[in-house]
Design brief:
about 210 residues, alpha/beta, TIM Barrel, nine-stranded mixed beta sheet
């Protein structure tokens, strides 16, 4: 149970339930291969059965951390910072992104879009989930749409999401890791027939890095 003072700081985004932070190579989507500092925020109620960071779901397991400390750590490593989760938009991202941008850092987010957009972002990666569809603010502002392909029906979902996202968003199909051997050939075939899409792979897992 958080104290009233800490809860107020969390509510305004001055403290966030930090799960982990690390410097690595971006493994997915448009910025694959670039060095970036990742900030993983705890808390998610979307509940994907194939999620590979289910330990992020319960925000109470990840104590509120002052954003000044988070920003200071991030500034030591990279000019690009990626905020991920969990679902980071469960929290107000305004103060965190403002502080990062004050240091001239490029600030990216990876989100399911299930909550309204907060914060100021240089790049928004929207990875929608069937359990809890994105809000209009995220559809309208996403720079890339990354749909995870677990089975063949997900291609239908991908096209539905492509219709809703803004026309400037770059479209990616990515095999769910446990199904990559099975689904990647179908994704390759689909992209060749529908070249508005691109293939995304979880290259960090092939590289055996976080």
């Amino acid at each position: 149970m958080l104290s009233k003072e800490v809860q107020l700081e969390v509510n305004r985004g001055a403290m966030l339930p930090l799960m982990e932070e690390f410097y690595t190579i971006q493994g997915e989507g448009f910025h694959t291969g670039k060095a970036a500092y990742f900030i993983r925020i705890g808390g998610c109620d979307v509940g994907c059965h194939w999620c590979d960071v289910k330990e992020s779901w319960n925000a109470e397991l990840h104590p509120p951390t002052a954003i000044d400390l988070i920003v200071n750590n991030a500034s030591k490593y990279s000019e690009t910072v990626v905020v991920t989760g969990g679902e980071p938009l469960m929290w107000d991202m305004s103060l965190l992104t403002q502080r990062l941008k004050n240091l001239n850092l490029k600030v990216h987010i990876e989100t399911s879009g299930a909550y309204p957009l907060s914060g100021s972002w240089d790049w928004i990666c929207l990875s929608p989930k069937k359990n809890k569809l994105p809000t209009e603010t995220v559809y309208n502002n996403a720079n890339e749409l990354k749909v995870i392909i677990y089975n063949k029906h997900d291609f239908i979902f991908a096209e539905e999401q492509a219709e809703k996202v803004n026309p400037k968003a770059i479209l990616f199909l990515q095999p769910e890791w446990s199904k990559s051997e099975e689904m990647t050939p179908f994704i390759v075939e689909y992209v060749m027939k529908n070249p508005k899409w691109r293939v995304s792979l979880q290259t960090h897992k092939y590289l055996n890095i976080p």
